[in-house]
Structures are given as C-alpha cells and as structure tokens.
Amino acid sequence: MRRVIILGSTGSIGVQALEVVARHPELFEVVGLGAGSKREALAEQARVAGVEHTALGADEAEQLIRSVDADVVLNGITGSVGLGPTLAALEEGRTLALANKESLIVGGELVRSLAAPGQLVPVDSEHSAIAQALRGGTAEEVRRLVVTASGGPFRGRTRAELEHVTPREALAHPTWDMGLVITTNSSTLVNKGLEVIEAHLLFDVPYERIDVVVHPQSMIHSMVEFIDGSTLAQASPPDMRLPIALGLNWPHRMHDVGVPIDWTRAATWTFEPLDDEAFPAVLLAKQVGAAGSTYPAVYNAANEQAVQAFHSGRAGSSTSWTPSAGSSTPTSRRPGPHARIACRGRALGARRGRPRARGLTRAG
Q1: Does 229 show up as a binding residue in the annotation?
Q2: Exposure pattern of 247-260 as b/e (b: 16+ CB <10 Å)?
Q3: 26 a known binding residue?
Q4: Where do the annotations place Mn(2+) binding (predicted)?
C-alpha cells in the first residue's frame, strides 16, 4: 500500500485524485492533504478521508512533506508557489507525481538534479502520454515529441479577433475544466508553451525536436515519433483521472480508472498546425527555454501577472500580453554555481518579471 500526500486537494486535480484513491483503498492510504486557502473545504476533505495531517498554503505543505512519512506526493498546486513542496518531496525521497509544471519550469536544473531515476512522474496528460509512449523505444531511437493541443475556445480566430475577448470567453474551454488559471492558460496556449519547456526538462529532448499540433477532439494526448518513421500515441477520452492514477501508481496501471474509447463507433479525429501569429506563446516558450537560465522563470512569472491582470480588468486581452510583456522581461542574470543559489537566482528572475509585467498590463 502506498502512503499518499495530496497537495492542491481542493482544486480540480486534487478532487479527482481523492476520487481515484477512494476507489482503490487496497492500493492507497491518504496521510496528508494540502490546500491553498479553502480552509473549510480542506477540513471537510480530511474528515471524509480520515486524514489527520493537513496544510494550508505552500509553506505548510512543505512542512507536511518533511514531517509526515509518505511514499508519494501528488503536487497539484497551481503556480510557481509549488516549487518549495516539489523540492521538499524530492529531497525527502518521495515519489513526486507532478501536476505543478511551474515548479519544474522555475526550478529547472535544480529539480532535475534532485530527482533520482523514476522519482519524478508527470501527471499532465500530455507528458504522461509521452512517458507511456517512450516505453516503446530507447532514448536514442526518439526522433521527436509531438504535443497535442485542443486549440481552446479561440481556435481559428485571428490575432485581431482576439484583442477584445472576455474572461468569460477564455474560461469556456471546449474540453477541460481545470480552474481559472490553467483554463486561461489553455485559452492563450501559454499552457502549451509551458508544456513544451516541461517536456524538454522531463525527457531531455531538444526544443527543435518538440512540436505542437492542434487536435480539437483531445483524444490523442501526445505522440512520440521514432527514427524508423513509426509513431506511438497514447489515446483515451479526456479524463484527468487516467494520468493521475498512473502518476500515483507508477509504473503500474490500475483497473477501470476511466471509460475506454469505443472503437466500434465511427469517429473523426483531425490535426492542424498551430497558428503562431495568433498564438505566439509556444514559439516564445521555445525561445526562452533554449535561452535557459532564469528566462523560463520570467516567462512563467509574466504570465501569472498577466492572467491576474486580465481577470481583474487591468488588461484588455488574455492573448495579447505574450509578445510584449513576455519578450521584454527575460533577465540576463545567470545562476550561481551552487544548486541552491541557482534556484534563488531563478526565483529572483521570476520576481523581477512580475513588476515588469504589472507595468505593461497597466500601460496596455
């Protein structure tokens, strides 16, 4: 039986993780829960699940990881505040089921250096799909990774048409219900840009060999193309319980987590190229990812501020920040030689990105 800590338990990922665990009491015991600010909801979850140890906020979550014995930590926190719990889980030797991509992007090489082989397991559906497909070959046999995107609610719109979209429109995602920040990021395709950086850090594939294609049906979650010309894809109906379950029980699968595809029914799956002019976030992510250092942290910080500005009415469009704020904020600061100094350098880069992004959203 695996002892599990679930962080972000009151959010979309956390709620679904609790559902998965509740259906398999023979496999899991929840020993800790953490939430951001929903104290009453957290207390109710702890009561229902019979969990003694809880944490409110990222700092308490880090303490929870260090003080409670656990085999697996599911980090479902939203945003770069998840970095501390990610580092704590790795340092304490826990298997880290990572849904908090921002902590990997901000922590970069420090996170990678702390992770032992098999210790860091992706929970994002795209990266879970890639991890599964990579079982079909060796690293030397991989030609490229293909990350799929639904295209979000604004698929097919031009750059000009996106200038006056509203927060309500941005949250009307056709496939996923993932909370305000992630759903907004999916609308701007910043989420896909972050996923490209995450794919590079997780699987050590160069950016020029990571592509994004639009797949509106969201049935194929990502693909791996091999040197012989074959491609392995992971397909399933869009259901986050599948990658959550695999992340908690990696490398083993569990019975009947989700509903499989009915291959006897006629269906059409389509693929189309990404419009980089209307949605420049992915191209910019590749640029900042290749630049390295604190650039990815600044990209993430600028986006976090832009999302807040958009939903508070301080920015006119959720998609228009990317080429202006994002491309003008990267810092030239280089991380120091020690891992902890490197991490602080990235955090400093992120903090420097936030006021610059705030100024741009006020001016825009």
Answers
A1: no
A2: bbbbeeebeebeee
A3: no
A4: 124, 126, 195
| 221 marked ligand binding residue | no
101 is in an annotated binding site: yes
The predicted structure's pLDDT at residue 168:
83
pLDDT exceeding 90 applies to what percent of the chain? 73
Tell me if 324 is assigned to a ligand binding site: no
Percent of the chain scoring above 70 in pLDDT: 85
Known binding residue 53? Answer is no
183 known ligand binder: no
Convert 81-102 to b/e letters by CB count within 10 Å (16 or more is b).
Answer: bbbbbbbbbbebebbbbbbbbb
Cβ atoms of 167 and 311 closer than 8 Å: yes
pLDDT at 350: 53
What is the pTM (predicted TM-score) of this model? 0.85
186 is in an annotated binding site: yes
4 in Cβ contact with 28 (< 8 Å): yes
Q: Is 277 marked within a binding site?
A: no
Over the stretch 51-110, which tens digit does the pLDDT of each residue have? Answer: 999 999 999 999 999 999 999 999 999 999 999 999 999 999 999 999 999 999 999 999
Q: Is 100 one of the annotated binding-site residues?
A: yes
- The topology (CATH level 3) of 2-122 is Rossmann fold (3.40.50)
Query: For the residues 314-330, what does the mean pLDDT come to?
Result: 50
